[in-house]
From TrEMBL:
Residues 1-29 form the 4Fe-4S ferredoxin-type domain. InterPro entries: 4Fe4S_Fe-S-bd, 4Fe4S_Fe_S_CS, YfhL-like. NCBIfam families: di_4Fe-4S_YfhL (NF033683). One of its GO terms (molecular function) is metal ion binding. This is YfhL family 4Fe-4S dicluster ferredoxin. The keyword Transferase does not apply. It comes from Rheinheimera lutimaris. The keyword Amino-acid biosynthesis does not apply. Keywords: Iron, Iron-sulfur, Metal-binding.
Length: 62
């Protein structure tokens, strides 16, 4: 279940440096998660840290 960033992302940059796997990068219009790199932060944090830091709550696990 990788994290997915929704279109409401405002590219605030909060989540990008927090990802332990560097799975978040700029897409066509907003940041996107590479599902092959996202590990839900297992081994690093108790919860997905990108979700914890996003001020818009626009990241979900799917
Ligand atoms: S859940 Fe963790 S590993 Fe996955 S994109 Fe977010 S910060 Fe990166
Ligand atoms: S923290 Fe949320 S709003 Fe900010 S860039 Fe990441 S997904 Fe987008």
């Amino acid at each position: 279940m990788p994290a997915v960033i929704e279109v409401s992302c405002i590219n605030c940059d909060m989540c990008v440096p927090e990802c332990p796997n560097e799975a978040i990068s700029m897409g066509t219009r907003h940041y996107e998660v590479d599902p092959l790199l996202c590990t839900e932060c297992i081994g690093y944090y108790d919860k997905p840290t990108c979700i914890a830091v996003c001020p818009l709550d626009c990241i979900t696990l799917v």
